[in-house]
Amino acid sequence: MLYFLPTVNSTDLLANLYNAFNPFEPLPAGDPKYVDCQDVRGDADILQELGNRMQLANTNTCQLYSGHRGAGKSTELLRLKKYLENRQFYVVYFAADEEDIDSEDAQYTDILLACTRRLLKDLKEIASPRPILDWLKDRWVDLKDLALTPIEFEKMAVEVQLAQFAKLTANLGHVRNLLLLTQDAIGRTDELPVSQKAVRRAITQARDTYRRTVENHQWCLLAEVSCSKRIINDDLYRSLMYNRCLLEYRYLDDDGEMQRWYDIHPLIQGIPEFKEAIAKLS
Fold first, then answer.
1. Does the pLDDT at position 7 exceed 70?
2. Could you say which of 48, 129, 157, 186 would form a disulfide bridge with 123 (CB–CB 3.0 to 4.6 Å)?
């Protein structure tokens, strides 16, 4: 008896193998490619250690699941998600590097805001998101001037509110600096109104942080960017952007093309070393 095996295109097979070993794509729950590594993980079982705790607790719980990058945390969390959903839990899951979180510069406030946004998005499909939207409306009143957004939040449709909130949270890196300055000034105040001295002290404290961040040879680079509003694709400039000494701004030109310009952080303007570097360019 003769058996004929189907012909497999070698290019397709190679592509399938390549994509099957994608290290950046977590496996969905129940995927046959999943390998149980419990024996080499200290007998750790996320379903038992986290899943059971969440089920048994009669109050809200906060659980931290950590590990090295690429160790399979996302795959395990997807297993936990399915486990909880099978037990009548409603689970909101999102990857930490998606959409509105910068995985290289994330703080707990970024995560909380992103969680709120994802809750809004999911609730829009199954329930009324009004309680959270009302909370966002109050936050919008506080921050709309800082975000330079002349839009009235309450007049937006739900979808537009979600988009505006995502835009606001993505831009909070610079707003946060202003909020921190405000908080610092208030912390130096015993009785309202906040005095000019407290404000100046908060600004001076923050400015000193940037002064100590900049290395001696970088003052001339900051002065050049302050005048030209441009940077060179070089590690020296990238390091200044990473430290928030240089800020990038974007806009659409008349042809609808994305354009960028750069400038120093406003706090740097009053630093003596920067003023000296500017004077040398004159």
1. no
2. 129
The enclosing H or E element of 87 equals none
Token pair for residue 47? 């379903």
Instruction: Give the span between the Cα atoms of 202 and 116, in whole angstroms.
Output: 30
Domain boundaries, the chain: 68-170, 173-213, 215-282
- What is the value of pTM for the model shown? 0.48
Q: Cα separation of 257 and 251, whole Å?
A: 8
Residue 250, phi then psi, degrees to nearest 5: -130, 150
C-alpha dist (Å) from residue 176 to 107, 136, 225: 11, 17, 23
Helix ranges (DSSP H) in the chain? 10-20, 46, 52-56, 73-85, 108-126, 130-143, 158-170, 172-187, 196-213, 219-228, 235-242, 272-281
